[in-house]
Amino acid sequence: MAHREVTPESPGLRTPPVTPAATPTKPVPGAENLAARQATIQALSSELETLKKQYNELVSRKILHPSWRLHKGSSAQPSRTTSPTYNSSPNHNISDPVTKVSPEPETTKSPNVDKPTQGYLRKRLPKSSTAQPSRTTSQTYNSSPTHDSPDPLTETSPRSRTTKPPTADKRIQTCLGKPLPRAQCESSGVGNNYIFQVTPKDFPDMTIIKIGVTKGPEHVRLAGIARDCEHLMVEAQDDPEHLPIRLYQRAETLAHQELREYRWPVGCRCKVRTHREYFHVPRDVALEVVQRWREFCRREPYDGQGQLRPFWRQRLDRFTSLCGVAESEADHWERSKRWTKFMNPKKHEIMWYDVKQMLSSLWKWRWLAVALVQSFSIAILALPRVYPIVMFAFMVTWVSAETSGIAQPLFPRAIGWAPAIIRRAEHDGLGDELTLLDGSVYIDPFDEEDDRDLEDVEMNEA
Protein backbone atom coordinates (compact mmCIF):
# COMPACT_ATOMS: atom_id res chain seq x y z
CA MET A 1 0.00 0.00 0.00
CA ALA A 2 1.47 3.11 -1.15
CA HIS A 3 1.95 5.89 1.32
CA ARG A 4 0.15 9.18 0.49
CA GLU A 5 0.91 12.44 2.14
CA VAL A 6 -2.19 14.15 3.46
CA THR A 7 -2.26 17.93 3.40
CA PRO A 8 -4.93 20.32 4.60
CA GLU A 9 -5.65 21.22 0.98
CA SER A 10 -6.57 17.68 0.12
CA PRO A 11 -10.19 17.33 -0.90
CA GLY A 12 -10.79 14.33 1.19
CA LEU A 13 -9.93 16.03 4.47
CA ARG A 14 -11.61 19.11 5.94
CA THR A 15 -10.48 20.67 9.18
CA PRO A 16 -12.95 22.75 11.19
CA PRO A 17 -12.19 26.47 11.25
CA VAL A 18 -10.42 27.69 14.28
CA THR A 19 -12.18 30.65 15.93
CA PRO A 20 -10.17 32.90 18.19
CA ALA A 21 -11.19 33.19 21.76
CA ALA A 22 -13.71 36.02 22.37
CA THR A 23 -12.09 38.90 24.23
CA PRO A 24 -14.39 41.10 26.38
CA THR A 25 -14.99 44.63 24.90
CA LYS A 26 -14.60 47.61 27.19
CA PRO A 27 -17.14 50.55 26.82
CA VAL A 28 -15.71 53.78 25.49
CA PRO A 29 -15.78 56.32 28.29
CA GLY A 30 -18.18 59.24 27.65
CA ALA A 31 -19.80 57.65 24.60
CA GLU A 32 -23.31 58.08 25.97
CA ASN A 33 -22.68 61.75 26.88
CA LEU A 34 -21.14 62.33 23.46
CA ALA A 35 -24.13 60.83 21.70
CA ALA A 36 -26.48 62.93 23.80
CA ARG A 37 -24.52 66.07 23.02
CA GLN A 38 -24.50 65.26 19.31
CA ALA A 39 -28.26 64.80 19.42
CA THR A 40 -28.66 68.09 21.27
CA ILE A 41 -26.42 69.90 18.79
CA GLN A 42 -28.38 68.46 15.89
CA ALA A 43 -31.65 69.56 17.49
CA LEU A 44 -30.28 73.02 18.17
CA SER A 45 -29.07 73.32 14.59
CA SER A 46 -32.51 72.50 13.25
CA GLU A 47 -34.10 74.94 15.68
CA LEU A 48 -31.59 77.61 14.69
CA GLU A 49 -32.48 77.14 11.03
CA THR A 50 -36.15 77.51 11.93
CA LEU A 51 -35.44 80.68 13.88
CA LYS A 52 -33.44 82.09 10.98
CA LYS A 53 -36.38 81.51 8.67
CA GLN A 54 -38.69 83.23 11.16
CA TYR A 55 -36.22 86.10 11.51
CA ASN A 56 -36.02 86.61 7.74
CA GLU A 57 -39.80 86.53 7.60
CA LEU A 58 -40.06 89.19 10.31
CA VAL A 59 -37.51 91.37 8.51
CA SER A 60 -39.39 91.05 5.23
CA ARG A 61 -42.60 92.10 6.98
CA LYS A 62 -40.74 95.04 8.62
CA ILE A 63 -41.57 93.79 12.09
CA LEU A 64 -37.85 93.66 12.83
CA HIS A 65 -35.29 96.13 11.53
CA PRO A 66 -32.48 94.72 9.35
CA SER A 67 -29.96 96.10 11.85
CA TRP A 68 -30.61 92.96 13.94
CA ARG A 69 -27.81 90.64 12.81
CA LEU A 70 -27.06 87.07 13.74
CA HIS A 71 -23.36 86.63 14.38
CA LYS A 72 -21.91 83.27 15.20
CA GLY A 73 -20.39 83.33 18.64
CA SER A 74 -21.62 86.83 19.53
CA SER A 75 -24.89 88.15 20.86
CA ALA A 76 -27.13 89.97 18.42
CA GLN A 77 -27.76 93.53 19.51
CA PRO A 78 -29.78 96.23 17.73
CA SER A 79 -28.08 99.34 16.44
CA ARG A 80 -28.68 102.65 18.16
CA THR A 81 -30.69 104.08 15.30
CA THR A 82 -33.52 101.54 15.10
CA SER A 83 -36.70 102.36 13.27
CA PRO A 84 -40.09 102.21 15.03
CA THR A 85 -41.51 98.71 15.30
CA TYR A 86 -45.10 97.66 15.13
CA ASN A 87 -47.08 95.00 16.92
CA SER A 88 -47.38 91.76 14.98
CA SER A 89 -50.46 90.47 16.82
CA PRO A 90 -53.55 89.56 14.71
CA ASN A 91 -55.67 92.16 16.55
CA HIS A 92 -53.45 95.02 15.42
CA ASN A 93 -54.81 96.70 12.30
CA ILE A 94 -51.77 98.78 11.36
CA SER A 95 -50.05 97.35 8.30
CA ASP A 96 -47.25 98.45 6.07
CA PRO A 97 -48.73 100.36 3.08
CA VAL A 98 -45.86 99.29 0.81
CA THR A 99 -44.91 95.74 1.77
CA LYS A 100 -47.62 93.14 1.57
CA VAL A 101 -48.01 91.21 4.77
CA SER A 102 -47.38 87.52 4.28
CA PRO A 103 -49.13 84.86 6.38
CA GLU A 104 -47.69 83.80 9.70
CA PRO A 105 -44.87 81.25 9.40
CA GLU A 106 -45.57 77.75 10.54
CA THR A 107 -44.38 77.13 14.03
CA THR A 108 -42.36 74.00 14.61
CA LYS A 109 -42.29 72.18 17.86
CA SER A 110 -38.96 72.75 19.48
CA PRO A 111 -37.12 69.73 20.86
CA ASN A 112 -36.59 69.17 24.53
CA VAL A 113 -33.60 71.25 25.55
CA ASP A 114 -32.15 71.51 29.02
CA LYS A 115 -32.15 74.83 30.91
CA PRO A 116 -28.45 75.71 30.40
CA THR A 117 -28.88 75.30 26.66
CA GLN A 118 -32.03 77.44 26.73
CA GLY A 119 -30.12 80.19 28.52
CA TYR A 120 -27.34 79.93 25.95
CA LEU A 121 -29.89 80.29 23.14
CA ARG A 122 -31.50 83.33 24.73
CA LYS A 123 -28.15 85.08 24.76
CA ARG A 124 -27.26 84.13 21.18
CA LEU A 125 -30.58 84.67 19.43
CA PRO A 126 -32.32 88.04 18.78
CA LYS A 127 -34.98 89.19 21.18
CA SER A 128 -38.62 89.06 20.16
CA SER A 129 -40.35 92.29 19.21
CA THR A 130 -42.39 93.74 22.06
CA ALA A 131 -43.18 97.08 20.44
CA GLN A 132 -46.56 98.60 21.15
CA PRO A 133 -48.79 100.30 18.57
CA SER A 134 -48.28 104.01 17.98
CA ARG A 135 -51.70 104.86 19.38
CA THR A 136 -51.83 105.52 23.09
CA THR A 137 -54.74 105.11 25.41
CA SER A 138 -56.15 107.95 27.47
CA GLN A 139 -54.27 108.97 30.60
CA THR A 140 -56.06 108.38 33.90
CA TYR A 141 -55.08 109.28 37.43
CA ASN A 142 -55.92 107.82 40.80
CA SER A 143 -58.58 109.73 42.66
CA SER A 144 -56.61 109.59 45.91
CA PRO A 145 -53.31 108.18 47.18
CA THR A 146 -55.22 105.23 48.68
CA HIS A 147 -58.10 104.95 46.20
CA ASP A 148 -57.85 102.96 42.96
CA SER A 149 -60.82 104.38 41.05
CA PRO A 150 -60.01 106.70 38.12
CA ASP A 151 -60.84 110.37 38.13
CA PRO A 152 -63.38 110.83 35.30
CA LEU A 153 -62.92 114.59 35.20
CA THR A 154 -59.20 114.44 34.45
CA GLU A 155 -59.19 111.76 31.74
CA THR A 156 -57.33 113.14 28.78
CA SER A 157 -57.79 112.53 25.10
CA PRO A 158 -55.42 110.18 23.26
CA ARG A 159 -51.99 111.77 22.90
CA SER A 160 -49.10 111.14 20.60
CA ARG A 161 -46.14 109.09 21.76
CA THR A 162 -43.94 112.13 22.42
CA THR A 163 -46.55 114.13 24.38
CA LYS A 164 -46.59 113.78 28.14
CA PRO A 165 -49.04 115.38 30.56
CA PRO A 166 -47.46 118.08 32.72
CA THR A 167 -46.48 116.96 36.18
CA ALA A 168 -47.64 118.64 39.37
CA ASP A 169 -44.26 120.35 39.80
CA LYS A 170 -44.42 121.76 36.27
CA ARG A 171 -47.93 123.08 36.80
CA ILE A 172 -46.92 124.75 40.06
CA GLN A 173 -43.86 126.34 38.43
CA THR A 174 -46.00 127.68 35.59
CA CYS A 175 -48.56 129.09 38.01
CA LEU A 176 -45.88 130.75 40.16
CA GLY A 177 -44.22 132.35 37.15
CA LYS A 178 -47.42 133.93 35.81
CA PRO A 179 -47.96 137.60 36.71
CA LEU A 180 -50.80 138.46 39.02
CA PRO A 181 -54.02 139.69 37.40
CA ARG A 182 -54.50 143.43 37.56
CA ALA A 183 -57.40 143.06 39.98
CA GLN A 184 -55.19 141.21 42.47
CA CYS A 185 -52.36 143.73 42.07
CA GLU A 186 -54.60 146.71 42.75
CA SER A 187 -56.66 145.08 45.49
CA SER A 188 -55.66 145.73 49.08
CA GLY A 189 -58.39 143.64 50.69
CA VAL A 190 -57.83 140.28 52.35
CA GLY A 191 -59.64 136.97 52.07
CA ASN A 192 -59.79 133.52 53.63
CA ASN A 193 -58.78 130.11 52.28
CA TYR A 194 -61.12 127.47 53.71
CA ILE A 195 -61.31 123.66 53.74
CA PHE A 196 -64.73 122.00 53.99
CA GLN A 197 -65.38 118.27 54.29
CA VAL A 198 -68.36 117.37 52.11
CA THR A 199 -70.55 114.32 51.59
CA PRO A 200 -72.20 114.86 48.18
CA LYS A 201 -75.73 113.77 47.44
CA ASP A 202 -74.67 111.76 44.39
CA PHE A 203 -72.03 109.82 46.39
CA PRO A 204 -73.48 109.28 49.87
CA ASP A 205 -70.75 106.80 50.84
CA MET A 206 -67.89 109.14 49.91
CA THR A 207 -66.23 112.04 51.71
CA ILE A 208 -64.47 114.67 49.60
CA ILE A 209 -62.71 117.97 50.34
CA LYS A 210 -63.71 121.42 49.07
CA ILE A 211 -60.90 124.01 48.84
CA GLY A 212 -62.12 127.54 48.16
CA VAL A 213 -61.90 131.22 49.12
CA THR A 214 -64.23 133.79 50.62
CA LYS A 215 -63.98 137.43 51.62
CA GLY A 216 -66.45 137.07 54.46
CA PRO A 217 -66.68 134.77 57.47
CA GLU A 218 -66.30 131.07 56.80
CA HIS A 219 -69.46 130.03 58.62
CA VAL A 220 -71.52 132.26 56.30
CA ARG A 221 -69.93 130.60 53.26
CA LEU A 222 -70.53 127.15 54.76
CA ALA A 223 -74.23 127.90 55.31
CA GLY A 224 -74.55 129.14 51.72
CA ILE A 225 -72.97 125.97 50.29
CA ALA A 226 -75.19 123.72 52.39
CA ARG A 227 -78.27 125.66 51.26
CA ASP A 228 -77.51 126.03 47.55
CA CYS A 229 -75.64 122.81 46.73
CA GLU A 230 -77.86 120.47 48.81
CA HIS A 231 -75.04 118.26 50.02
CA LEU A 232 -75.75 115.62 52.61
CA MET A 233 -73.09 117.04 54.91
CA VAL A 234 -70.81 120.11 54.90
CA GLU A 235 -68.37 120.44 57.78
CA ALA A 236 -65.65 123.05 58.34
CA GLN A 237 -62.19 121.73 59.17
CA ASP A 238 -60.13 123.08 62.01
CA ASP A 239 -57.16 125.04 60.67
CA PRO A 240 -54.89 126.30 63.46
CA GLU A 241 -52.76 128.34 61.03
CA HIS A 242 -55.71 130.13 59.47
CA LEU A 243 -55.31 133.87 58.83
CA PRO A 244 -56.60 136.27 56.15
CA ILE A 245 -54.09 137.23 53.44
CA ARG A 246 -54.09 139.59 50.46
CA LEU A 247 -53.08 137.01 47.81
CA TYR A 248 -55.69 134.45 48.86
CA GLN A 249 -56.75 133.85 45.24
CA ARG A 250 -53.23 132.97 44.11
CA ALA A 251 -52.90 130.60 47.09
CA GLU A 252 -56.13 128.87 46.03
CA THR A 253 -54.89 128.52 42.43
CA LEU A 254 -51.61 126.98 43.56
CA ALA A 255 -53.42 124.45 45.78
CA HIS A 256 -55.78 123.51 42.93
CA GLN A 257 -52.89 123.02 40.51
CA GLU A 258 -51.06 120.73 42.91
CA LEU A 259 -54.13 118.53 43.54
CA ARG A 260 -55.57 118.64 40.04
CA GLU A 261 -55.12 114.89 39.45
CA TYR A 262 -57.40 114.22 42.44
CA ARG A 263 -60.22 116.52 41.35
CA TRP A 264 -63.65 114.93 41.73
CA PRO A 265 -66.77 115.86 39.71
CA VAL A 266 -69.79 116.79 41.77
CA GLY A 267 -73.31 117.06 40.41
CA CYS A 268 -74.46 120.17 42.22
CA ARG A 269 -77.91 121.80 42.44
CA CYS A 270 -76.51 125.33 42.41
CA LYS A 271 -75.96 127.58 39.39
CA VAL A 272 -72.39 126.35 38.83
CA ARG A 273 -72.53 123.42 36.41
CA THR A 274 -69.06 122.01 36.98
CA HIS A 275 -67.24 122.54 40.24
CA ARG A 276 -63.46 122.36 40.13
CA GLU A 277 -62.73 122.86 43.81
CA TYR A 278 -63.71 119.38 45.06
CA PHE A 279 -60.92 116.85 45.57
CA HIS A 280 -60.85 113.23 46.67
CA VAL A 281 -57.86 113.45 49.01
CA PRO A 282 -57.35 112.82 52.72
CA ARG A 283 -58.03 115.71 55.04
CA ASP A 284 -54.42 116.01 56.24
CA VAL A 285 -53.15 116.23 52.64
CA ALA A 286 -55.54 119.04 51.75
CA LEU A 287 -54.77 120.89 54.98
CA GLU A 288 -51.01 120.70 54.41
CA VAL A 289 -51.29 121.98 50.82
CA VAL A 290 -53.50 124.94 51.74
CA GLN A 291 -51.34 125.93 54.72
CA ARG A 292 -48.14 125.76 52.68
CA TRP A 293 -49.31 128.00 49.82
CA ARG A 294 -51.09 130.39 52.14
CA GLU A 295 -47.87 130.91 54.07
CA PHE A 296 -45.95 131.46 50.84
CA CYS A 297 -48.41 134.08 49.55
CA ARG A 298 -48.42 135.79 52.95
CA ARG A 299 -44.74 136.70 52.33
CA GLU A 300 -45.75 138.87 49.34
CA PRO A 301 -43.50 137.21 46.71
CA TYR A 302 -44.85 139.51 43.95
CA ASP A 303 -43.97 143.16 43.40
CA GLY A 304 -46.30 146.07 42.70
CA GLN A 305 -46.55 145.19 38.99
CA GLY A 306 -47.58 141.62 39.79
CA GLN A 307 -44.25 140.10 38.74
CA LEU A 308 -42.48 137.47 40.79
CA ARG A 309 -39.63 139.08 42.71
CA PRO A 310 -36.11 138.41 41.36
CA PHE A 311 -35.05 136.32 44.35
CA TRP A 312 -37.97 133.90 43.94
CA ARG A 313 -37.60 133.98 40.18
CA GLN A 314 -34.02 132.73 40.27
CA ARG A 315 -34.98 130.04 42.80
CA LEU A 316 -37.83 128.95 40.57
CA ASP A 317 -35.50 128.73 37.56
CA ARG A 318 -33.11 126.57 39.60
CA PHE A 319 -35.84 124.47 41.22
CA THR A 320 -34.56 121.13 39.93
CA SER A 321 -30.99 121.70 41.12
CA LEU A 322 -32.11 123.10 44.48
CA CYS A 323 -34.95 120.75 45.39
CA GLY A 324 -34.48 117.63 43.27
CA VAL A 325 -36.64 115.77 40.77
CA ALA A 326 -39.91 113.96 41.41
CA GLU A 327 -39.49 110.19 41.56
CA SER A 328 -43.21 109.47 41.82
CA GLU A 329 -46.12 111.78 41.08
CA ALA A 330 -48.34 109.90 43.53
CA ASP A 331 -46.03 110.56 46.48
CA HIS A 332 -47.52 113.73 47.96
CA TRP A 333 -45.21 114.02 50.95
CA GLU A 334 -42.06 113.92 48.82
CA ARG A 335 -43.47 116.75 46.72
CA SER A 336 -44.32 118.63 49.91
CA LYS A 337 -40.69 118.36 51.06
CA ARG A 338 -39.41 119.77 47.77
CA TRP A 339 -41.68 122.83 47.82
CA THR A 340 -41.14 123.42 51.52
CA LYS A 341 -37.41 123.56 50.79
CA PHE A 342 -38.10 126.00 47.96
CA MET A 343 -40.14 128.29 50.22
CA ASN A 344 -37.62 128.34 53.07
CA PRO A 345 -34.21 129.43 51.77
CA LYS A 346 -31.29 129.28 54.14
CA LYS A 347 -29.47 132.37 55.38
CA HIS A 348 -26.35 131.74 53.36
CA GLU A 349 -28.46 131.45 50.18
CA ILE A 350 -30.02 134.86 50.86
CA MET A 351 -26.63 136.42 51.62
CA TRP A 352 -25.05 134.96 48.49
CA TYR A 353 -27.92 136.30 46.38
CA ASP A 354 -27.48 139.79 47.88
CA VAL A 355 -23.74 139.71 47.19
CA LYS A 356 -24.28 138.70 43.57
CA GLN A 357 -26.87 141.43 43.09
CA MET A 358 -24.52 144.05 44.53
CA LEU A 359 -21.63 142.90 42.34
CA SER A 360 -23.80 142.89 39.24
CA SER A 361 -25.02 146.42 39.98
CA LEU A 362 -21.45 147.67 40.50
CA TRP A 363 -20.07 145.92 37.46
CA LYS A 364 -21.36 148.56 35.04
CA TRP A 365 -19.45 151.23 36.97
CA ARG A 366 -16.14 149.37 36.89
CA TRP A 367 -14.39 151.86 34.56
CA LEU A 368 -15.45 154.81 36.68
CA ALA A 369 -14.00 153.03 39.69
CA VAL A 370 -10.74 152.48 37.81
CA ALA A 371 -10.58 156.17 36.89
CA LEU A 372 -11.29 157.16 40.49
CA VAL A 373 -8.48 154.95 41.80
CA GLN A 374 -6.04 156.30 39.22
CA SER A 375 -6.87 159.93 40.05
CA PHE A 376 -6.43 159.20 43.74
CA SER A 377 -3.03 157.63 43.09
CA ILE A 378 -1.91 160.63 41.03
CA ALA A 379 -3.09 163.04 43.74
CA ILE A 380 -1.09 161.17 46.39
CA LEU A 381 2.05 161.01 44.26
CA ALA A 382 1.84 164.71 43.28
CA LEU A 383 1.44 166.13 46.78
CA PRO A 384 1.70 168.97 47.79
CA ARG A 385 0.58 170.26 44.39
CA VAL A 386 -3.01 171.53 44.31
CA TYR A 387 -3.91 170.64 40.71
CA PRO A 388 -4.02 166.80 41.21
CA ILE A 389 -6.13 167.27 44.35
CA VAL A 390 -8.60 169.43 42.41
CA MET A 391 -8.78 166.80 39.66
CA PHE A 392 -9.37 164.08 42.23
CA ALA A 393 -12.22 166.12 43.77
CA PHE A 394 -13.65 166.60 40.29
CA MET A 395 -13.53 162.84 39.64
CA VAL A 396 -15.27 162.13 42.94
CA THR A 397 -18.02 164.58 42.02
CA TRP A 398 -18.34 163.06 38.57
CA VAL A 399 -18.59 159.48 39.84
CA SER A 400 -21.10 160.51 42.52
CA ALA A 401 -23.26 162.20 39.91
CA GLU A 402 -23.13 159.18 37.62
CA THR A 403 -23.98 156.63 40.31
CA SER A 404 -26.68 158.69 42.05
CA GLY A 405 -29.30 157.92 39.42
CA ILE A 406 -28.85 160.89 37.06
CA ALA A 407 -29.88 159.72 33.61
CA GLN A 408 -27.40 161.85 31.64
CA PRO A 409 -23.82 162.80 32.42
CA LEU A 410 -23.20 166.00 34.28
CA PHE A 411 -21.57 168.01 31.46
CA PRO A 412 -24.30 167.50 28.81
CA ARG A 413 -26.88 168.57 31.36
CA ALA A 414 -24.86 171.71 32.16
CA ILE A 415 -24.43 172.40 28.45
CA GLY A 416 -28.21 172.18 28.07
CA TRP A 417 -28.67 174.82 30.79
CA ALA A 418 -26.03 177.22 29.44
CA PRO A 419 -27.80 178.65 26.33
CA ALA A 420 -30.90 179.72 28.24
CA ILE A 421 -28.86 181.38 30.99
CA ILE A 422 -26.61 183.19 28.49
CA ARG A 423 -29.57 184.43 26.46
CA ARG A 424 -31.32 185.67 29.60
CA ALA A 425 -28.16 187.50 30.71
CA GLU A 426 -27.77 189.17 27.30
CA HIS A 427 -31.44 190.25 27.33
CA ASP A 428 -31.11 191.92 30.76
CA GLY A 429 -27.99 193.81 29.75
CA LEU A 430 -25.93 193.72 32.92
CA GLY A 431 -26.81 190.17 33.91
CA ASP A 432 -26.71 190.65 37.65
CA GLU A 433 -26.80 187.72 39.99
CA LEU A 434 -30.48 188.08 40.83
CA THR A 435 -31.48 188.02 37.18
CA LEU A 436 -29.36 184.95 36.56
CA LEU A 437 -30.98 183.15 39.45
CA ASP A 438 -34.44 184.09 38.28
CA GLY A 439 -33.65 182.98 34.74
CA SER A 440 -32.25 179.60 35.74
CA VAL A 441 -34.71 176.98 34.56
CA TYR A 442 -34.44 173.24 35.20
CA ILE A 443 -34.72 171.26 32.00
CA ASP A 444 -35.62 167.57 32.09
CA PRO A 445 -34.09 166.15 28.92
CA PHE A 446 -36.62 163.30 28.91
CA ASP A 447 -39.70 165.53 29.12
CA GLU A 448 -40.39 166.83 25.62
CA GLU A 449 -43.50 168.77 26.67
CA ASP A 450 -41.55 170.86 29.19
CA ASP A 451 -38.91 171.47 26.53
CA ARG A 452 -41.53 172.78 24.08
CA ASP A 453 -43.10 174.94 26.79
CA LEU A 454 -39.71 176.46 27.55
CA GLU A 455 -39.14 177.27 23.87
CA ASP A 456 -42.54 178.95 23.70
CA VAL A 457 -41.72 181.06 26.74
CA GLU A 458 -38.40 182.12 25.26
CA MET A 459 -40.02 183.06 21.95
CA ASN A 460 -42.65 185.14 23.73
CA GLU A 461 -40.02 186.91 25.79
CA ALA A 462 -37.95 187.61 22.68
TrEMBL record:
Coiled-coil annotated spans: 34-61
UniProt keyword annotation of Membrane present: no
Bias (Basic residues): 62-72
Bias type Polar residues, positions: 74-96, 127-147
Keywords, ordered alphabetically: Coiled coil
Compositional bias annotation for Low complexity: 20-29, 154-166
Record-linked InterPro entries: Phage_T5_Orf172_DNA-bd
Region of interest called Disordered, as start-end residue ranges on this chain: 1-31, 61-173
Matches recorded under Pfam families: T5orf172 (PF10544)
Positions of the Bacteriophage T5 Orf172 DNA-binding domain: 201-293
UniProt entry tagged with the keyword Coiled coil: yes
Protein name as it appears in the record: Bacteriophage T5 Orf172 DNA-binding domain-containing protein
Native source species: Pestalotiopsis fici (strain W106-1 / CGMCC3.15140)
